[in-house]
Amino acid sequence: MDASFKQQKIINLVSARLGVLPPDAKISIGSYGMFTRKELIKHVKRNDEIGQKMVAVDLEYLKSLKTGILYA
Amino acid sequence: MPKKLLLSRPSYEVTTNYLSSWSEKIINIAKNKKIVVLDLKGNQANKKRLTQTIDQYKPHLVLLNGHGNKEAITGQNDEILIQAGENENILKGKIVYALSCETGKVLGPESIKAGTDVYIGYDEVFIFYYTKGKESQPLRDKRAALFLQPASEVSTSLIEGQSGKEAHEKSKNAFMLNIRKLLSSQAKESYLVRYLLWDMKHQVCLGNKNATF
C-alpha cells in the first residue's frame, strides 16, 4: 500500500468517525477556533493543519486501544 | 503573611469565556482558604498589568488561562503576556499552571531554565467539546465539564497544598475517571474519549515536581 493511498484511507476513517458526533456538539481547538462536526470533516478532507490535528488525535487514541491503557 | 495567587483569565470569545467561568470555581476555593486572589479578568489580562501585579504582590502561584502556542501565552484579545526568550523570567520562583495550548513545549521548559519552580501545562493543543446553545452558561454545560473539571483539578490541588506532581497526577486521574465513565456506561458521549485522552496525555509537569504552594 503506497503512502498516499494509506493516507487517504486514514482520512476516510477519521471523517467517518467524526460523522457520528452529535450536531449540537462543538469543539474548541485552542487558537485554531471552534468548529462544528461538518466543519471538522471539511478540514480533515482538505488535510490542512486542523484536519491533520484531528487525524493525530484519532491515531493516538487507536494506538492507546492497542496498549490497553483505557481498560487497565 | 497570607498566600497569594495570581490568575489571568481573558474573556472575549467562547473558549476564553469557558475558561474564565471555570476560574470562578477556583477563586471561590482559594478565597475560602483565605488566599489572596489577584484576579486579572477580561481587559485586565494584559501584559502591563500582569507584570506590575507580579512585581508588586509577588504571588507564589500563577494560574494562566487563555490561548497559547509553543512559545507564548496570551491574554485579552490575544495580547501576548509571556513570551519565551523575552519575559519568562517573571515566573522565577513560582508555581505555574497554564491552561492553554502547547506552552509545555517551549515556554514551559524555558521558564524552568529561568528559575520557575514548577510548570504544568500542555505540550499540544488543549481540546474541549461544548454544547451549542450553552455558550452563555458555561458552568451548566455538562459536556464541557468532562474536560474542564479534570483540567481545573491542577489548580484546586495546588491551592490545597499538594505538590506539582500530585496536582498533575490528580488531574490525569480525573481525566481517566471521565474516560472510564464514558466507556463503561456505553454513553452516547463516548466519542469524547479520544479528546479526553489527548488532553490527559499531553499535560506535562516540568521542574521541581515536589514544589508546593
Would you kindly provide a written description of the structure presented here, covering whatever features stand out?
The complex is a heterodimer of chains A (72) and B (213). Chain A is 62% helix and 10% strand. Chain A is mostly helical and 72 residues long. Chain A has one domain. Chain A has a two-stranded antiparallel sheet. In chain A, α1 (3-18) runs antiparallel to α2 (37-46) and α2 (37-46) crosses α3. Chain A is globular and about 30 Å long. Chain B has one domain (4-207): Rossmann fold. Helix content of chain B is 40%, strand content 21%. Chain B contains 6 helices and 9 strands; from the N terminus they run βαβαββββαββαααβ. The longest helix of chain B is centred in the C-terminal third of the chain and has 21 residues, at 164-184. At the A-B interface, β1 and α3 of A face α1, β8, α5 and α6 of B.
